[in-house]
Design a protein that fits this description.
seven-stranded mixed beta sheet; single chain; 7 helices; about 325 residues; 20 strands; alpha+beta
Length: about 325
């Protein structure tokens, strides 16, 4: 019970239900392990001090601990912080869900204080902890104020992976996510990071009209070249389409390197070290997909050997193209 019409419903809905459940278990002599989904508000500290919701949750906690003492049953009491993740109901009790929904659907958001910090728990991390709990591998803790401190013999249980972020950090990341289809740079999303989890959450709120988006194709008589994804630290990915008989490239780079990966058609890649006459040749085909290094200091090209089919090549470069410093110099192979 978290959105009652009357404050008294907090105690009736939270404490009352817990009491009914435990009485039923005692009546039937069922001492199975039982888990309580409590809340950090049960600490009644700081902004939670006057929380009727927190008081009802704290009463439920004490009831569970008393039940454990009386019956010997195992109880797992979790004080969950702010939960977020895909499909969470917006405009209810999750600021993250509301922000994601509104940004994804071009609706306004309101942030009263960008410095307000939230402790956030991602739904997948919660589910992983619940699976651990089912196997008797739950994580225990004690609380120092609102902070959970891991402790093997702790009275409480907790999810060891949470993220502390300000409202300002959250909305700034969401602004980056929204701009990505237009600017192409992909925000950094390291494994296990808050950004990665927030991006997955944000995408779950995208309307159908924004699920697909156009890319800028640079088209001429030779075919086309389209940038797909750019990153801050890991370069960019593009796709190149060459018409039958067309040769593209004929340039070299000082420091930039690339992978050429032909995914459709039949072609020839040539590379020659600057100052040398020796040419390396790689026959490539979509029937046998392989990656070919474009080496720094080697002028290179790619030739469509087919008379009828386009040559489609996925190209990765170790840096995003910078018009002010292109590091690209024309020279025929």
């Amino acid at each position: 019970m978290n959105r009652p019409k009357e404050q008294s419903e907090f105690m009736a809905g939270n404490f009352g239900f817990a009491s009914t459940l435990l009485d039923m278990l005692k009546k039937h002599g069922n001492t199975c392990p039982i888990m309580l989904s409590s809340s950090i508000q049960a600490t009644l500290i700081g902004r939670y001090a006057a929380s009727d919701y927190g008081k009802s949750k704290l009463a439920g906690e004490e009831l569970f601990f008393k039940y454990a003492e009386e019956t010997g049953a195992k109880v797992l009491v979790y004080r969950f912080p702010n939960l977020f993740g895909k499909w969470c109901r917006p405009n209810y009790n999750s600021a993250v869900a509301t922000f994601c929904n509104n940004v994804a659907n071009d609706l306004p958001i309101q942030v009263n204080d960008r410095s307000t910090e939230l402790e956030l728990l991602y739904i997948d991390d919660l589910v992983e902890e619940m699976q651990d709990a089912l196997e008797g591998k739950e994580h225990h803790c004690e609380f120092e104020g609102v902070k959970a401190v891991g402790c093997d013999n702790g009275r409480y249980c907790y999810v060891p992976v949470t993220h502390k972020k300000t409202l300002g950090e959250i909305v700034d990341l969401l602004a980056e996510f929204k701009e990505q289809p237009e600017t192409l740079p992909m925000p950094e999303i390291p494994e296990g990071s808050f950004a990665k989890k927030l991006y997955s959450t944000y995408l779950s709120y995208l309307p159908e009209s924004r699920t697909a988006f156009p890319l800028k194709m640079n088209v001429d008589a030779r075919g086309s070249f389209t940038e797909l994804i750019k990153t801050a630290k890991c370069g960019q990915v593009s796709v190149n389409i060459s018409k039958p008989g067309i040769t593209k490239g004929q340039h070299w780079h000082n420091s930039k390197w690339e992978f050429f990966i032909v995914v459709s058609g039949h072609g020839l890649i040539e590379e020659r070290k600057i100052g040398s006459m020796e040419i390396m040749r790689f026959e490539v085909s979509g029937d046998k997909i392989e990656a070919v290094h474009m080496l720094p200091g080697y002028t290179h090209n790619i030739i469509n050997l087919s008379d009828t089919e386009d040559l489609v090549t996925v190209m990765w470069a170790n840096e995003a193209f910078d018009p002010a410093k292109p590091d690209t110099f024309h020279e025929d192979v």
